[in-house]
Amino acid sequence: MDFARIAPDVKLGKDVIIHGFVNLYGCTIGDETKVGTFVEIQKGAAVGKRCKISSHTFICTGVTIEDEVFVGHNVSFINDKYPRATNPDGSLQTEKDWKVVPTVVKRRASIGSGCTIVCGVTIGEGAVIGAGSVVNRDVPPGARVAGVPARPIED
Prior knowledge:
By secondary structure, the chain is mainly β. It has a single domain, classed as Hexapeptide repeat proteins (UDP N-Acetylglucosamine Acyltransferase, domain 1), CATH 2.160.10.10. Helix content is 0%, strand content 29%. It is built from no helices and 21 strands. The protein has strands at residues 5-6, 11-12, 17-18, 23-24, 28-29, 34-35, 40-41, 46-47, 52-53, 58-59, 63-65, 70-71, 76-77, 103-105, 110-111, 116-117, 122-123, 128-129, 134-135, 144-146, 151-152. Strand 20 (144-146) and strand 21 (151-152) form a beta hairpin. The model has no long low-confidence stretch (mean pLDDT 95).
């Protein structure tokens, strides 16, 4: 028994490898992608072909990850700039009370372990994000960034 929860509305490509203890619903995962243990991918998220999504990663609604992207361990994506549990009247918020802000990770980018990716950014093709970084603005193609907030780094 692998204890994976894969909803019937998940679209899986050919030869996808999914390890145990995952929670996938309403998402799309491309051919030959590997999804590690303790990963959650929410509805409306899309992961491309030949990606590696490492353990303990959270990919929320509104995230698009293109082909051949590496996502390290314990990476969290955010899709709401102003998260709240309740509305001003005290009622619990529902999906219709907030707006998803999309995020895009372009082809062949690499995101190091422990990163937080704030919504509304684009991580450019081939960019590298250093471990533990907080990405709160666009990262140009081929750039290498690290830190809190993530900034360009030199060799």
